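Record pair follows.
FIRST:
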Amino acid sequence: MICPGETVLVALSGGADSVCLFRVLYALSESYPFRLEAVHVNHMLRDTAGRDEAFARALCERFGVPFHCEKVDVAAYAKEQRLGTEEAARTLRYEVFERIREQIGAGKVALAHHEGDQAETILFHLCRGCGIEGLRGMEPVSDYYIRPLLGCDRAAIEKYLACLSQSYVTDETNLENIYSRNILRNLIMPVLTENICAKTQAHIAATGERMGQLEDFIHMAVEQAYRDCVQDAYQRDADGKKVDRKQSLDIPALQRLHPFVRSELVRTCLYRLCETKKDITDAHVAAVCGLCDKQTGRSISLPYHMRAYRSYHAILLEKFTEADEKEDGDAQLWQQEILIGAQGAGFACEYAMQDGRKLSVSIFSRPKDANIPTKAYTKWLDYAKLDKSLALRMPKEGDYFLMADGHKKYLKDYMKNEKIPAGQRSLMPIVAMGNHVVYIVGRRISEACKVTETTEMIVQIHVRD
């Protein structure tokens, strides 16, 4: 937790926990080579906040420990940022810790969380919904934050202070059941301890420690899976730093993984791509995993301008920015010409699509008593109703097809009505003559090109992986 010669900044509120930590660290500093300083954050929420600040200052003066203090207007910040008081106070408090840490060059910031805080944290995460990471609770060492008392219960802390005849202050709001933490501490935990198991708090904290070990094991498994399944494509930012922009997840390798490891691998990929864990849900992870069983060409939109796309042997994850709009526009310019005007029965040709699939076109005389295919990826069109040149391309502005009543249906309106995600619309391949879309690949054809009783020659379009 502490390296020789380091400066340790202890968060000193004046309450029993922080005063205990202060005294423990001070005692250790007399025999172990590190420098101790203290920081107090006045949240300006109580009339007695000044009392707590004065107590913390006097304690530091008594032991000759450098004291830092900052006032933060939690109420104003909470209102401005539309946050709860607890969240606003925590945010501002940690900003002060970080600022003072950098100012004095401290190697560690010591926090006074104990076993009861750990149990409450895990229970809070469980109630709100979490994965293994949430069930591990707080870590004894997290970057430069250390929690030396995490294995101690409140009774041990109070006993230690009593042995030293050390006083402390009590935040009277801790007794008010208006905050989530207080409800867990004052109402829920006592019921569990008194009616379920006297060692509930210790058992929850111990479970958190085991969950931490389990998460470390899973992390190793996911990192190995990442090496086996994922290929990264990098771009560089203005400073020359590598930035993940694309990831290719090999589908056969993914399918060999245990379902849990597969999900955690996908989650890790999304976290790394968008550089945050916020707003990435189990539903997003499941949707990406589900692409393994979808047809080539299927895609889904994800938070933070990300998109997942099913190619032939892989799932492609990509993050877009405003600068990518031009690239997206260039993608829409992709097209291949399908010449059918001079062809007759027996003509067959295959075209490579941008997503790796193959689109085959064949021309033949209409068989007698043949049933018209109804499959999404096999369509018959009336040869006589088509231009001699068709285009296999991506959608563009003004594209339409004709309905049964002869009215135009614009493609963009159709996609909205079909609830096709915005990120997928520009990538949906079509076959068109000019702006008239004769086939939306995987969906429907224009009624204007439909095979009827008078059709003599048929153009069959078939798409395969």
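SECOND:
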Amino acid sequence: MFSAFANSLKIPELRQRILFTFGLVLVCRIIARVPSPGVDAVALREFITHLQTTAGGSFLGLFDLFSGGALRYVAVGALGIMPYISATIILQLMTAVIPSLERLAREGDAGRQKITQYGRYLTVLLCIVQGYAMAMTLENPGALGINRQIVYMPGWGFRILTVMTMTTGTMMLMWLGEQITDRGIGNGISLIITVNIISRLPGAVQATINMFMPVDGVAQFTVFHLIGLLVMIFLVIAGVVAVTQAQRKVPVQYAKRVVGRKVYGGQSTYMPLRVNYSGVMPIIFAQAILMFPSKVLGLVPLDFFKRMAAAIQYGTPMYLILYGLLILFFSYFWVATQFNPIQIADDLKKYGGYVPGIRPGRPTAEFLDRTMTRITLAGAIFLTVIAVIPSVMARQFGIPWIVASFFGGTSLLIMVGVMLDTMRQVESHLLMRHYDGFLKKGKLRSRR
């Protein structure tokens, strides 16, 4: 593995791509730290402390996680890349229900470029809405429990300036992500999110050290807890890697076709069906939905609704039950909207392919649907277990949220998935130039 990292710097094209990626990632981190104009820096520290203590685990904390802490500093990139991700998800869901978008998606590169353009327009619209909401929140800090004024000169001037600043920051991050994808290594948008998550690692390490520091002569956690945490994070990461890579290989046989003097087809291959087909999307949807019920019920001036609001607050047993059920539901919902077995069966039949033992056409579609339903259950259960680990660690064992968030949930799934995808791209460059990948020894291939 270490020789693969060294070999990646020996290839001029790959080295240029890696350095280009690191350079743009540095620019993204600068955007996440440049403060937005018109905000009082002294009063802002109180605002930051409030967010750090209350935003963990909520949708606001998820938003701050994806922005790399820029939301806490009200930086130029405070909205992060989330508006672009939201626009992409909305268009993906609309593609499954709107025939015109579905036809565009089937037109190849031209159709995908048109959908990407629609996504950029929708991103600008979301940035304007969210930037205005951000400006109104800063002008009225009392809603967050802050009694000091944060904005120097509130009014429409500040609101328009904030909307323009936040929109420009998000569009700049989106453009940098596209440049990384085209001229760097890995998926640019995903890498920006991953780097933003990893930027919280030094704070997590410091919080872990503080966990084992004695308070009033007595330490809350011992060395046995440290060993348990190390073993646990190793097992969790290994499980995430295994399930992320897991797939059901459906064998596919192609019949021979004679076109002129050439013979096409006749080979055997397989169709990979991913166990965790929906990725991290069910967790994001579940967190976004559970953000509202407790707050809405808490506004109703009746004791019954207030008790209901307290029962479904973050970290409570009822919250975890609802959280798990929503993850299961959205796992199947995402597969139902994105996986089209009828279209796959028709494409197989069109090109002379078939699943051995299954008739082409509708029986093949039913077989794929039944297979996907079964493996989705395993993936959904896995997502549910991974998602509730940070909540249980923070609520039941008193571990700081910034530490618990690296033991599961959205952050760990995104980091593992993006790292695996980036390593695959680097390994493909190495294998093309007769170098070994990350899991082979250099001397072994040279001897062969």
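COMMENT: The two ends are 19 Å apart (CA to CA).
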